[in-house]
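sorry for the late reply, my laptop died twice this morning and i had to redo everyting from scratch. anyway the thing you sent over, i finally got around to it. pasting the sequence first so we're on the same page, its 300 residues, then the predicted structure underneath. double check i copied it right bc i was rushing
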Amino acid sequence: MIGAITAGMMNFGSLSVDFLVVAGGGGGGSAYVGAGGGAGGLRASSQNQLIAGTTYTITVGGGGAGGAIYGGAGTNGVNSSISGTGLTTFSCSGGGYGMTATAGSVTTVGSGGSGGGANYLTPLGYGSGNTGGYSPVEGYRGGGGGPANTNYGSGGGGGAAGVGVDGTATTGGNGGPGADTYNGIDFSAWLSATSSGFSGKIAGGGGGSTFTAGTPGTGQNGGGNGSTATGTAASTNSGGGGGGSERGGGTGVGGNGGSGLILLRIAGDITATSTTGSPSRTVSGGFTYYKFTGNGSISF
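ok and here's the structure:
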C-alpha cells in the first residue's frame, strides 16, 4: 500500500501511483477439438513515481480471435503497457492461442503471457507462459491434450495464477485460475472498487473442448468455456482466454479472448490534469482509481 501524498512529494514534482496491468487473452482453437486459449499476462507494481506534467501512454491489449471454422487455431492476445518519461515501460504479454488439429496435422503451440492448451495430437505440446520473462511470472502454461481415443479432450488455457488442466479421454481441461494478488500486492479491492467484477480474480484461462459425448472444460475468472459446439468468448476486459470449440462436420469456431485492463491507484482524492481514452475515475477507501478499458493517456 502506498502512503498519503505529502507536500514534499509534490514539491519534487512526482506522484506515487500503483499499477495493475492485464494483457489481452488468447483465442480458443476451433474444431477439431480446439484447446482453450491462455489468459493475458498480469502484473502489478506499487509506488511508481510519475513526473508531474508528463503524459503517460496507456495501451490496453485486445483479445485474440477464436479459431475459424474447420481446423483453425486461435490468435494470440495483444500486449498491454504503461509508458512515459521517467518510467521504465511496464508491460505484460498477450495470452497464447488454443491449438487445434485438422486432417492429421497440428498447429504450433500458442505461447504467451499464459499459454494456450494442447490437443490430442501433441499431448505435451501446450503453450508456455511468462514469455516476457518476468519475476514473478505473469502467467502459466496451458494444459496438455488427452489421449487419441474416445472423446479426445483438449487442454485448458493457462491462467495468471496457475496452469491449465490437462484434457482426458472424456473431458476437456479447465482453464487455469486467475489472480487477485501479484508479488504481494492484493488488488482484489481494486477490482471491486472499479466494478471490474470477475469474482475478485481476473485473467483466467479458457476451457478445452471434446467430441460430442465428452464433457468440455470450464473457463476460469473471465475465461470462456469449452464446448462441443462453438467455444464461449472470454469476458470483456478480463484478459481471459477463449473457450475451445468442437462440432460435428468441423463447423465450430473458437471463442474470442477477452480484452485487457489497466488500473491506476493513487492515495487520496486526486484528479488527473488530462486524460484521453475516457477512463473511469472512482474514489473509494481513501484512494483514487483510474480504470482504462482501451488505449489512452493520463497526466497529473
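Residues 24-41+57-77+93-257 form one domain.
thats about all i looked at so far, will dig more tmrw
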